[in-house]
Here is the input.
Amino acid sequence: MKVAVLDIKGKETGRKVELSKEVFGIEPSEHAIYLDVKQYLAHQRQGNHKAKERGEIAGSTRKIKKQKGTGTARAGSIKSPVFRGGGRIFGPRVRDYQQKLNKNVKRLARKSALTIKSNEKAITVVEDFSFEAPKTKDFKAILSSLGIESKKSLIVLGDANNNVYLSSRNLERSEVITSSELNTYKIVNANNVVFTESALEGIESNFKK
Here is the structure.
């Protein structure tokens, strides 16, 4: 599949690039996409939630009232979960949410996500660009020229460019990453994926392995 290369004003440069069938034209696996997105979201969780249980509460262990004759339920330590200030029953504990996923499944998931975007005509290729200084106004002008200003977009650069990144940081619907940071969740989460020429070359060489 050939895609026209655009400039930052949204006009065709007269050049076209061939999207590799091995990356953008495979039989997509929705289950692989599900597993990779699930792992990514799990890794975003810090897992540092904690509530004290009755054994961790500071307080007296004296029996607070006699066993019988009070007309109410028997009670032992003031640290019991049934009392205010007592420990919590089955409260959250610190844990690690990380999951393991085979690298071949991750590669399949990313190629599947790119294939789906390609089938939806949601992939754009632009020539490499840079800014002399961070300017959100200039970055918004590029999005407007490409017709994706109002859509959730993912801009993939070949190499890190601090000025371009800073120019996009205030825009809620747009995100700038490098080709090495590309993952299944970011692809699926975007309405449109914009690749620079250098980023496209790097992704195809990495994903063909």
User: Anything to note?
Assistant: The helical segments are 21-24, 30-43, 103-119, 136-146, 162-168, 184-189, 197-207.
